[in-house]
Design a protein that fits this description.
A hairpin with a 4-residue loop joins strand 5 and strand 6. The chain has 8 helices and 10 strands.
């Protein structure tokens, strides 16, 4: 564990957020499995970190009551019902767009179902976070979204936004301190609502699993 990660863990714990470190991504599934119980009601966000760590396969394996909004053939109406199930789930799995050295969680959403779940609803929120997502502060976290997370996710999701072409948010083109809304009116824009979680009121509700390797965007 690096000194930087150790500082982040202490900051998270100070902010009433659980933090666990694993060296390798293959260590994540056994750790997560130890947190769950058979029949747990589980939901998740659209996280590449969850997929790359193998947690998606774990929660799909039949031991749990998993509501999968990505299943083949799901209708928009059924997907909306899954979104509603999130509020009463036992576990919600996701990542974070950036994690500051002060233990703040930076997240930006389009539909806002993910940041809603992080804020309120699920009894436990488990975040899978690679060391590549650690940043100095909130400002650097939002820049990470504009330079890394949003462009890559727009390409992955097929969103025709300026950042999917430029490789960075168009707001960075002509402004050293861009506003959130500068320059982008793309249909399906994924950067609609910005959220900073500075502290978790309910002790133990959020657990951040920090991996020493890179995961996700």
């Amino acid at each position: 564990m690096t000194d930087r990660i150790e500082r982040v863990i202490k900051s998270l714990e100070k902010n009433n957020i659980n933090a666990v470190f694993v060296e390798k991504k293959q260590d994540i599934v056994p750790l997560v499995k130890s947190m769950l119980h058979k029949g747990s009601v589980i939901t998740n966000g659209g996280s590449m970190s969850v997929i790359e760590s193998g947690v998606d396969k774990l929660i799909e394996n039949g031991d749990y009551n998993y509501f999968n909004r990505f299943r083949e053939g799901i209708t928009p109406e059924e997907q909306l019902e899954v979104y509603k199930k999130v509020l009463d789930s036992d576990f919600y799995f996701c990542s974070t767009n950036a994690l500051t050295e002060n233990g703040e969680l930076i997240n930006v959403d389009g539909n806002c179902n993910r940041i809603s779940a992080i804020s309120f609803g699920p009894r436990k929120v488990i975040m899978i976070v690679g060391a590549n997502k650690i940043v100095k502060d909130v400002n650097e976290g939002f820049l990470r979204v504009k330079k890394v997370a949003a462009p890559k996710n727009c390409v992955r999701l097929g969103v025709k936004s300026p950042c999917s072409v430029l490789g960075h948010c168009v707001s960075l083109e002509n402004n050293d301190n861009p506003n959130i809304t500068d320059g982008c009116d793309a249909v399906g824009r994924i950067c609609c609502t910005y959220m900073v979680t500075g502290r978790q009121r309910v002790s133990g509700r959020i657990t951040v699993i920090i991996c020493g390797e890179s995961l996700g965007y």
